[in-house]
Amino acid sequence: MVKKFFSRFYIGIILLFLYAPIVILIVLSFNASKSRSKWGGFTFKWYHELFQNEDIMAALTTTLIIAFTSALIATLLGTAAAIAMNSMKKTPRTILLAITNVPMLNADIVTGISLMLIFVALNFTLGFTSVLLAHITFNIPYVILSVMPKLKQLNSHTFEAAQDLGASPLYAFFKVILPDIFPGVLSGFFLAFTMSLDDFVITHFTKGPEINTLSTKIYTEVRKGIKPEIYALSTIMFVTVLLLLIFINRRKADKNAPIRKV
Amino acid sequence: MAVSDKFKQLTEKKPEIGLLFSRVNKVKWLSFPYILWMIGFILIPLIMILYYGLTNGENSFTFENISLIANPVNRGALLLALELSVFSTLICLLLAYPLAIILNNTKLKSNSFIVLIIILPMWMNFLLRTIAWQNILERTGVLNTILNFLHLPTLNIINTPAAIILGMVYNFLPFMVLPIYNVLIKIDKDVVNAARDLGANGGQTFLKIILPLSLPGVISGITMVFVPSLTTFVISTILGGSKIVLIGNVIEQQFRLGNWNTGSGLSLVLMVFILFSMAIISKYDKEGEGSNIW
């Protein structure tokens, strides 16, 4: 009992530590005062003004397009690579996985600089495309590491059975393999999307002067003070994802629950 | 008997899914776009850093960029970054290990809690979350208001190394929890029970069984926290004020000023530490699957 209490208490403290800044940001989004350190009363003003602020809206659009596109392409490349790697012998697979780990283990600043140098060396103008390519690069490993465990759990006989029953390999793949690994593919996509959204350092080095994502926009405002509209936007994004995750969990729980009595 | 054994052998022999694939079509070709991508966007770019770091503006070979690390300012920035990242890694380890054990013991049905602590905060921008710590730590900030209310002495840790360590622990703690948790859930409960049956007490079981078996996760976690802490320039910029300079700040500044060769040279020095960490990881990551990392 004491042990259980202590466990709960400890988890509570850690959650408080991890979520305190988030609570502060949500509170700031309702703060009528423009200053970060003064409470000027409750307001919805920043939520109204957010949608009139073209700069922030442009940065948001860029961020979301890059996050979605890079996650999608990374998911396609990464899933294909994971399937191929799964069929390789140990040595080539180990080598490929070691390379896969490089962007995850490497420092963001080094990855960012190295990509910037290659883009400049190729006379490639830094901008939207260079950021997109950079994001795909650091997103692929997350997809591979999400799909790999699902591939390992696969029952190989089902694929064989499908073919014995006359399915072509491609048809069997879409009907048998893909449904089984799909949760891994989906979580890889979600993870990649989130990583792209939260990235600052690599974007900072590969973006060029013309475009801004939310991260780089916030960084330019660190010194002169963050616009409260940004707090409002972040609150909307955070709460949306929170609700989405709760919704997904509910549905999962419903599915796993025994069939309700009528 | 012999026949049934043979039958058993035949049915139990699970052909590897991969071998099946490769018999049907050349599935390995699926990895080609990925391999090309990694060569183009990971390997060659790293070679570019090597090239810039070892040449001067006129493309001739030099060690000058690397030797700039001996410059007192740069050396100080590197040593301070090392010191702060070692501290923050240790604190993360001390906080994360008990948490991973508790999470493992609670036998969560789904990994939703893990998602909660690791993925969800990322939807609030990393820079904003760090800026929020300014609010908490400021002279008249949230923390000091609470301390005042409790009649406790105020803390002035904003713009000090302590604030940077706090920022590092805050941002990178999840990357210590996850690898340790991933290893702990894989430990066979029977091994732990066997130790208890043979008379080991809780402490002995932990020291002789759980800790050694969780070592790969601990090593991964240490790397996942140490490398980003060592190389950060954002956390030190936001929480350290303008006076505290880490090696990440130095490199970022060199690139901002257009001194790409110098910046690359200093990055090469930094990469020595990173490569060292990667070597240790690959030694412990026996499955070679990266599953201890993420």
Description:
The complex is a heterodimer of chains A (262) and B (294). Helices cover 78% and strands 0% of the residues of chain A. Chain A is mainly α. Chain B folds into two domains: 37 residues, no CATH class; 219 residues, MetI-like fold, CATH 1.10.3720. Chain B contains 14 helices and no strands. Chain B starts with a helix and ends in a 10-residue tail after the last helix.
Q: What are its keywords?
A:
heterodimer; A: 262 residues; mainly alpha; MetI-like fold; 0% strand; B: 294 residues; 2 domains; 71% helix; globular
Brief characterization of the structure:
The complex is a heterodimer of chains A (262) and B (294). With 262 residues, chain A is mainly alpha-helical.
Q: Percent helix among the residues of chain B?
A: over 70%
Give the termini distance of chain B in whole angstroms: 46 Å
How many domains would you count in the coordinates of chain B?
2
Cα-atom radius of gyration of chain A: 23 Å
Shape of chain B: globular
